[in-house]
Amino acid sequence: MPVDRTDTAAPPAATRSAVANGSRLFVEGLDGRSALARRYRDLVGEFTADLGGDPSEAQKQLIRRAASLSTWCEAQEVKLANGDEIEIGPLTTAANSLRRILQDIGIERKIRTINARRLEQLMGDDR
User: Fold this and answer.
1) In this structure, what are the phi and psi dihedrals at residue 14, rounded to the nearest 5 degrees?
2) Which domain of life is it from (predicted)?
3) Spatial contact of 40 and 25, defined as CB atoms under 8 Å apart
4) Cβ neighbours of residue 11 closer than 8 Å, sequence gap 6 or more
5) How far apart are CA 101 and CA 62, in angstroms?
6) Tens digits of residue pLDDT in 59-77
7) Biggest CA pair distance of the chain
8) CB within 8 Å of 48: residues ≥ 6 apart
9) Residue 117's pLDDT is what?
10) Which of 16, 30, 45, 107 could form a disulfide with 21 if both were Cys (CB 3.0 to 4.6 A apart)?
């Protein structure tokens, strides 16, 4: 039976963890200023926006896993582009897992309506 959460108030931010109230990415152990942490944070934001900006807790967890896998895959791709050898098996597994997570949370770009003026701007004067 589904739980109706409309009657339950969220606990005050002071009693929630820093991760739950959005002030930290992880419970401990990460300098949020590193390039990897910034990329992770950007991906979490982008995936969240793709879902409309108000994901459930379960969706938040999947978004975090997707961002983690994405950053790991990107790091492997940098190694590959630099001519370093990588193990293709773990990269393929991670990419497939990422695809399944994104499919599960239903991330897809929504087509947005473009007015005639904006369409003219996009197409330029080359018509």
Assistant:
1) -65, -25
2) Bacteria
3) yes
4) none
5) 6
6) 999 999 999 999 999 999 9
7) 59
8) 55, 60, 63
9) 76
10) 16
What is the per-residue pLDDT for 34? 85
- DSSP states of the chain: -----TTPPPPPGGGS-TTTTTS-SSSSS--TTSHHHHHHHHHHHHHHHHTTS---HHHHHHHHHHHHHHHHHHHHHHHHHTT----HHHHHHHHHHHHHHHHHHT--PPP----HHHHHHHHTT--
pLDDT of residue 123: 77
pLDDT in tens, 91-116: 999 999 999 999 998 876 656 666 77
Task: Look at residues 57, 61, 76 and name the one whose alpha carbon lies nearest to residue 3.
Answer: 57
Residue 123 CA, distance from chain mean position: 31
**What is the Cα–Cα distance from 63 to 70, expressed in whole angstroms?**
10
How far, in Å, CA of 31 to CA of 88, rounded? 29
Higher pLDDT residue, 29 or 18? 29
pLDDT the model gives residue 121 = 75
